[in-house]
């Protein structure tokens, strides 16, 4: 069964948990697509024939111009977080953040009967929350420090606004409270809330409401609820299949990724893994290792000689053993051979032990200037056509082992290394 190619894109995007939520499915290959712009993300999406794409900041508005049609929720929000193909092959944009809020608040329907919701914050998440509340038939009031933003929201969505300086005087008037503020921001004391309230905090890491909810008796909904409940309709858009949120909750609970400074670079021959890897080593201070070079040293012969004298199976087994020995190393940059991902065991090692970056560029770019004399698989009558066949056959393998993909087309080795470093350093602080 050919798996659908899916991804989440944004800048930065390595922090995204969307691939974790989707990892339960054996019908898809889902990873992070690093891009500098929405244009780059959509170009890569089309080049690799993706079947769907989740979108996070700052591309939610920018991607709209590339789409054929928008769902009603996306039209209302003027923002898209889910792109998929319709049955008539039109590129459609949806905003499942809205559905995510609706599904989350419906976990406590008794509070919705009070018909009043307070939204705290005026940032990028607020429009989705407002629309969700209105879709549920709630009277929505918004409070925030940014007065200009409040006035814009008031005119755009016909909501009430309130002065956040007085929040402790009116917060108890609302049965449903949604805080859409950065982590750690506290605008009122949660201990003034009672069992008559339900609070949804968009932050899913360290909410200021979780502990007080147990003491005061109000209902607490984590940003994880919202995260999962927006992913459910995305998956349904991508696959036309209904799923239970519990599957994603369980996957999220069991997820662990301990970055130990192990960065692997995979991709087709000639894409720049070795040259950019050496430059990335300089930027990070991590030790650089080229798997093909190391195997040649250990075997005392060129890759082409190993293939000729001992066969590809022998080479692949040697490659796997070498990869396994590196899986516990720290602070290394590993350039993998182009065919490393062909072996399931290798893909498993890369997924579980490395921050594996798939460097992608079209085949023609990869072959331009490449010396194919030491490329045994290209010793044929039409090496270009052979290379295209090889690349297409390996795409599912690159995708299955990738933590993230970076498009390196028309970039030199320094630019590739800087692009990788920029993405990784934003999330892992190297």
What does the main sheet amount to? 11 strands, mixed
Q: Indicate the CATH architecture of the largest domain.
A: 3-Layer(aba) Sandwich
User: Alpha-carbon distance between the termini?
Assistant: 39 Å
Count of domains: 3
Q: Give the strand line-up of the largest sheet.
A: 4-6-5-3-1-2-17-16-13-15-14
CATH class categorisation of the largest domain: Alpha Beta
Number of strands: 17
Helix content: 40-55%
Rg to the nearest angstrom?
Answer: 25 Å
> Which structural class do the helices and strands define?
alpha/beta
Our count of helices gives 18
Poorly predicted residue ranges: none
Strand percentage, roughly? 15-25%
The named CATH superfamily of the largest domain:
P-loop containing nucleotide triphosphate hydrolases
**What name does the CATH topology of the largest domain carry?**
Rossmann fold
Write down the overall mean pLDDT.
94
Shape: elongated
